[in-house]
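Appendix B. Chain record.
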Amino acid sequence: MATQKFTTTPHVRPFSTATIEVGEPIAIEQPDGLKRVIPINGGTVTGDGWHGVVLPGGADHQTIRVPEAMDLHAISMMQVEDGPIIRVENHAIRAGDPDVIERLNRGEEVDPELIYFRGAARLSTGPDNEFSWINSRLFLATGERHPRSVTVNLFVVE
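Structure tokens predicted for this chain:
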């Protein structure tokens, strides 16, 4: 890796796009808002010159604090084909007009342009593989929620 100067304005470059299959939400009312856990059932992921799968077993923990916004904390694993497993931990915000969010929460298809869905992610993998550089980088995320899936785009911050 070439020597970089880190005092300039950061830039981002695409890292991956994942289509994540999700299960039915499990919800419980709490004093600080409605909590939901959305199971991650699997999926696919594609990067620049590589592809793989999203492994089942992860989950997205959500807190709905106000009708128009929720905090998301998702942890998942993806495996590069013929390569390492990568752990993804994403903290995000999903927000929009209350009626649009309500439709989304009911499982209806909503135009992704109407939803603010942004996050900051940390990725990690083993120390001795072609993806080990991700252990020392921050990633930004954009997302789109669909009735049975979520599309997450990750961008490495340079």
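Further analysis of this model is presented in Appendix C.
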